[in-house]
């Protein structure tokens, strides 16, 4: 199964006409025409309308929505409507509502409100998905199915406890294997019956919140179980759809770097990846780039869909700044540059009431076509229409891979020691940003990915090392590549138990080091680190691993405390390549220096690496066409020499290699390379 077939980059987004009188719909479609909107996601939260009672279905409103969209030539992403269950379901079957981490049984309200292990929820959600598919599968305008919406959260009810025990039986087979994996001889926790096992919550293994647990193995498995339970909900609905629609692609909207759900476990079950991009307004532009690359990596480099983004302000944070002029266009092209084959919004028309009434929209409450936001959306729609299909199906030709691992994320942040201030996202973002600013193309891949095509593999905070990963990383270096790992890597196995070996465990031979001790300090403490023989001084924070070289060369040293003069950054010759290790949380300038040493070893100089807010990304189309995207994230114009000759597909201008190329503030160039 592939991406939906479209003649150009789909443009549009979430449309909820059931919220307004039908006389508004005609005006909406007039405005959609003006903005070149060709794709609508409909039916996301329509369960209460399409199934007003357990034995009653009413598709009248959804029929009219679909028919109206078809009449105007729109393509439709049709949702199953199961993102929030209706009030009648909670009243008739109260077991479908969730029990929270504190043990409180919830009543009806909000969304993300369904217990994923409720047999009633599983039965009725799949039945609705099947009914929707049966009714609309023959409609040519329906190009994709959208199951649920932004899956997430967790439940701790008795149904989940029973489901957890079943999941554990399937995973471990015997209680002896489970007790060994969970290290239950600690604190007299040995289990002698499956029914003795409780979900880890504030009432059992946790104190001071979800990340403080007495038994990391139990909590880690519950995180895995809950991700799998919601995946089973998705698969229930997909199976129901497939009985009526065997060929139309199926997806659900992910949320980028979202901790509760392991998207790598989900990826094989989606026909194509899609996600909702809402970067913090004060985030560095590499935040969104990393998220896009993570989504692209879910399907082995195949393009994804940008299913949602805000055309202007959001309404989901304490403070919600408006997007400045040009930022919406810039963010949209950034998504395309990193592999998006669709640019869609939430939302098409602003809701009148409830929690998202002040969430920005393409069309405001007054229905105007002369607002700044509408004009910017319409201009982008015309630009994408001229751009045509040239980027559809295009891949990213990366020689650098960054490993992203939900198990390491979970295990690191539920660990007691050495520092609860270390956050997985922070570590990963620091190293991704250094690569991004160096101007190299990056694949963000799971730890199970084939690494044979990469010259450089960066593994930040690879806390857990599973299976044959250590051997595959050694193979990268043995053939001449570089592997870069950081502090707190290779500390635990797949059960979250420490390796009975010197730190960094199975990576010790590759890195050529041994770590016997590690220091930790508050966030405001910095230990100076000298790099490049003292030519660069940076600061180290949070965790300070005390490294003893076992053959590795020293590239940077601590300058304070009893371990002053000991290594902080090392490089070890291994085969024809190297293992690089950073034993502390360097400031960004120190990370940048280290990453560029690695890249320079392989001649990966990158593009425009002296322009920290100029982003570049390449895509190669199925016909061999090479596209180079240049995006200026600064508010001021800049001029740089062209690194390749080509034609700007947005303006028609041509450039030769070395010729000056100017980008407006927040400007975009897309060069078709000669």
From TrEMBL:
Q: Which UniProt keywords apply?
A: Glycosidase, Hydrolase
Residues forming the Glycoside hydrolase family 42 N-terminal domain are 14-386
Which intervals hold domain Beta-galactosidase trimerisation? 398-604
Q: Which SUPFAM superfamilies match?
A: (Trans)glycosidases (SSF51445), Class I glutamine amidotransferase-like (SSF52317)
Report which superkingdom the organism of origin falls in. Answer: Bacteria
Q: Which enzyme type, at the first EC level?
A: hydrolase
Native source organism of the sequence: Actinacidiphila epipremni
**Matching InterPro entries:** Beta_galactosidase_C, Beta_galactosidase_Trimer, Class_I_gatase-like, GH, Glyco_hydro_42, Glyco_hydro_42_N, Glyco_hydro_b
Q: What is its EC number?
A: 3.2.1.23
Does this UniProt record's set of keywords contain Metal-binding?
Answer: no
Q: Does the keyword Plastid apply?
A: no
Query: What protein does this entry describe?
Result: Beta-galactosidase
